[in-house]
Amino acid sequence: MNRRSIRNGVLLLSAGVLLVLAGSYLGLAVAPAEMYMGDVQRIMYVHVPTAWNAMLALTFALVSAIGWLWTSNPKWDARHEAWIEIGIVLSALLCIQGSIWAKPTWGVWWDWDPRLTTMAVLLFAFIGILTLRRFVEDPMQRATWSAVATIIAYVDVPIVYFSVKWWNSLHQVQSTPETVSSAFHLPLRLNAFGILALMIGLAMLRAELAKRRRAAEYEPLPSPDLRTAGEVTS
Fold this sequence. Notes:
This protein is mainly alpha-helical. 77% of the residues lie in helices and 0% in strands. Helix 3 runs antiparallel to helix 7 and helix 4 packs antiparallel against helix 5 (139-153).
């Protein structure tokens, strides 16, 4: 395994944890409550950074998929697998956080609103791609088929982003530093960069594991004579 990638991955994970802890403390204990939503708004400090980074992780998955199709270099397939998994985790967290926020503000845990519906479609599309990878044994076919599927599924990402502008959505328009009070900026940015560092660190470590598994798939099986000798010896 690449020791530099492992070391850098661990360093990024450590930095990410510290940033998220600092951002969450400032968001929960220091920043003022929002004028209209009160303390319910504090979930924004994890929900918004999770949304930004979920879209970024899926974009990295798209880049990795194109990288594999362009070069057939196994490192791109390893990165592709890592970013798919991280994108799924962040997308699932995004839906859960959104439900927690929706119950006290909308009165329901879930609504088939355009933003929520397109997000659910995106999540299940990438779960399907990950499932596809588990069922295809040939490494070349697995990499190629899942890369093509990722390119197709990624079409939903801009639809998720623009859904609140294209259709009459319950979901508010995307939050940005320009649309929120300056008192909320620091915890938002700390959590955004913290989650970014966490997901890059995790992707580096997960890609190393994927590369190791793929190398093992290409190792030749021992000859029948050697296997028989091993059985007699044991």
